[in-house]
Amino acid sequence: GVVCLLCSVGFVVYNRWEAENAAKVTDSLLVDVQSVIAEQSAEQKDSQSKMPTINVDGYECIGILSIPVLDLELPVLTDWSYAKLKKTPCHYYGSYYEKDFVIAGHNYNSHFGRLSNLQAGDSVLFQDVSGASYFYEVALIETLPQNATEEMITSGFDLSLYTCTLGGSNRITVRCNIIK
Q: How crowded is the C-beta side of 112, counted as CA atoms within 13 Å?
C-alpha cells in the first residue's frame, strides 16, 4: 500500500513538473516568435496555399494563438508530434487560408487545459508569422471520442482547437468561425 501511495505521489509530482516545464518553454518561445514576427515584412506572404513559417530556437512556428478570455497567448508549431505537444500547441491539419485549420494542444492549464471554459461568442485570434491576423469567434464546444479523427478535420468550421480530457479517452473540441 505504501509503495502504491509513493508511486501515486511521484506521478503527480512528475506531471506538475512536466506542465511547469512546458509553460516555461512556451513563454520563452512566445517572446522569440513575437520578436521575429515584428521583424517580418509583408512580402513573406507570397503564397496563399502554404502557410509561412519561421525557425525560432530550433522550432518551426506558424504563428501565435491568442484566447483573451483565458488569458492565453501561445506560439503554434508547424507540425505536431507528442514530443512537440509537450512544449506548445501544434498545427494538426489544414490551414487558415483554406478555413479548415486545426490546432492541437496538451491539456496543461498553461496550454489548452481550460478550453472547456470557453463559451459561444468568445474571441480567438491567430497571428501568422508574416503579421497577418485572423479573428475567430467560438461557435461550438463539443466532446469527441479519441478516435474521431475524421470528425475533427472535416467539421466545416474555420478553426478547431482540441485537447485530451483527463485520462485521454475523449477530446474537448472548440469550433470557431472566422469573423469577416
A: 26
CB atoms within 10 A of CB 123: 15
Answering whether pTM is above 0.85, one says no
CA dihedral 51, 175, 21, 10 (to 10 degrees): -140
Cβ atoms of 78 and 60 within 8 Å: the answer is: yes
Cβ proximity of 123 and 69 under 8 Å: yes
Query: Rounded CA gap, 13 and 33, in Å?
Result: 30
C-alpha cell at 116: 472547456
Phi, psi for residue 94 in degrees, rounded to 5 = 70, -160
- Cell numbers placing 161: 482547437
Which region, left, alpha or beta, applies to residue 169 given φ > 0 means left and ψ of -120 to 50 means alpha? Answer: alpha
pLDDT digits (tens, 9 = 90+) for 9-63: 888 888 888 888 888 878 778 877 877 766 664 444 444 458 999 999 899 999 9
| Nearest alpha-carbon partner for 173 in 102, 111, 100 | 102
Q: How distant, in Å, are the alpha carbons of 36, 63, 95, 141, 176 from that of 131? A: 10, 8, 16, 28, 20
